[in-house]
From TrEMBL:
UniProt cross-references to Pfam families, sorted A to Z: BPD_transp_2
Membrane-topology annotation of the record: Multi-pass membrane protein
Transmembrane segments: 12-31, 37-56, 63-86, 150-169, 199-221, 233-260, 272-294
Gene Ontology cellular component annotations, sorted alphabetically: plasma membrane
Keyword set includes DNA damage: no
Top-rank taxon, per record: Bacteria
Keywords for the protein's UniProt record, in alphabetical order: Cell membrane, Membrane, Transmembrane, Transmembrane helix
Name this protein carries in UniProt: Nucleoside ABC transporter membrane protein
One annotated GO molecular function: transmembrane transporter activity
CDD domains the record matches: TM_PBP1_transp_TpRbsC_like
Subcellular location, record wording: Cell membrane
Amino acid sequence: MNFHSIFDYTLIYATIRASTPILFAALAAVITEQGDITNIGTEGIMLTASFVAVLVSYSTGSWVLALLIAMIAGILTALIMAVAHIKYKADITAIGTAINIFALAITKFGIKQFLGTTGSFTSPEIIGIPRVNIPILQGNKYLDGIFNNWSLMEIVGIIMVLVLSFLLYRTVWGLRLRSVGRFPMAAETAGINVNKMKYQVMIISGILGGMAGAHLSIGYSQMFIENMTNGRGFMGVAAMFFGGANPIFAWIGSLLFGFVDSIGGRLQAYGWPSQFVLMLPYIITVAVLAISLWRKARKEQKRKSSLIL
C-alpha cells in the first residue's frame, strides 16, 4: 500500500467535500441545541429535501428553484416537529425519530410515484449546483487540487459557520437564544418569548437541513438514492455534541467525519474489506458521541459540586 497516494494534498479537498453535508446538518443541530432542542430529526429533514431538490431540478431545469423548494420542504418538516414539541409537548426525540421514519417512507413513495423508478434516480436533465472554477489557479497543481472546482454550497457552508458564530455570540438575538436554552424561566421573567425563540430556531434549522439535503443530491452528486443521507444527519448531531453546540467546533467535528470518510474510500481502492470501510463513519460517530456525552456529564458534575460548595 502506498501511503503517499492516500495522504496526499488532494485529501484536503476530499475531506471538505465529504464533510459539507454533515456540516450543514451539524449547524442545523447547533442552532436548535442552543434553544434546548436536540434536533434528532435532522436526518429526515435532509432526506426529504434531497428528494425534493432532485424532483424540482429534473422537472424545471433550475438548481436555484430546486434549492429554494428544498429549503421550504426543510422548514415545513421542521415546523411539524416544532408544533408537536412546543405546542403539544411531545418528546423531541420521539417526534424526531418519527420524522426520520416518515422521510424514508415518503421519499420511497415519491421516487416511485413521481419519477417512475425504485432504488435510485439519475438523469442528465437534473441540473446540479454549479462549481466555482478559478482559471488562475490551474497553473499550480496544488492550488488547483485544493482550492479549485469547489461546489458553491461548500463555500456557503464555511460562510454559514462564520455567520452563525456571529449571530450566537455577537448579537442580542444570540444572547437571548442562549439564555432561553440555559435558563428558560429566567428568560421568560426577563420578557423573552421562549416559545417564539424556539420556533425561530426550528425554522432556521429547517433551512439549514434543506440546504444540506439539496447539496447532497444536486451538489455533491446529481442523483437521488433511497436513504441517500445514510446517517449523515446523525453524524451532524454527533458533530454538534462534539463541538458543544459551537459552530466552529462543530465544523471541526464535521471535518473529522469527512476525513474518515475520505480515507475509507481510498483504503477500499487498495482492497480493504468494504464492510470495514463502510462501518468506519459509524464507529467514529459512536466514539464521538460517547466522548462528548462523557465530557458533558463531567462538566455538569463539576458545576453541581461548585454549587454545593
